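How it folds
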Amino acid sequence: MILIVPSANGLRLRTPPAATLLIAALMLGVAAWSLPRVERLRGERARLEEVLRSSAAEETIAAGTSTQALCGVRRAALGASLAALDARDPLRNWGYTRDGTAWRAVTALFVHADWLHLAVNWIPLLVLGACLEQVWGSLCVLGLFLAGGTASMLLDGSLGPPGLLVGSSGAVATLLGACAVRFRSRPMRWRYAYFEALRIRRGKFEIPMALIVGLWLLQQVTGLLSPEPAAGIAFVSHLGGFALGAAYAAGREAARPTSPATA
């Protein structure tokens, strides 16, 4: 097995990335509380849905008999039980939907569907956020994460397919867009580790930022324009967040005073 993860792009961490660590800790804490509940509720929901299907089949077979009414009552009770499970679901309570209240676009940033969903957002957050904090500071990165993530989720809720939105991928895409502009001339360093003859072998390599961003954008656009978009991936949120982060970084770059020319 080989493990490959991104690392800082040549920047020394002169100051602790406080905002990035705070966000990462909140994400982990929410996941530790919510994901066991989500898994348990999924199992209960699957069991009730199976019973509900059986009840519907029995009602069809018993059509025109006195048993049909009893089956209908049983099906209604099962439906009420499913609704009660949904009311206890952290994803539904904290996630954002198109007709939901705007504040849930903030809480949804810290809720993830499963541990893999958390990992694919958590690792890039640590790298991108830590790099940006070295040049912009903690408050700026915290505001960028929250504002970009919330705005991208609201955008997806308006333009994307209907459904429940959870996860910080739009906020992480905002940080990626900012890094793509701010560190456009720096390659992204990656580290890898694998086992060989019961020993851990380590190494590192570099990939140009433009290549990473280009491949990522190609994946997002292809997924968005696909006749059958991948279920559960908020491409609109990703692209919207990236555009917001890139625009913010470009604005800061334009506003930065340039060094006077020397004779």
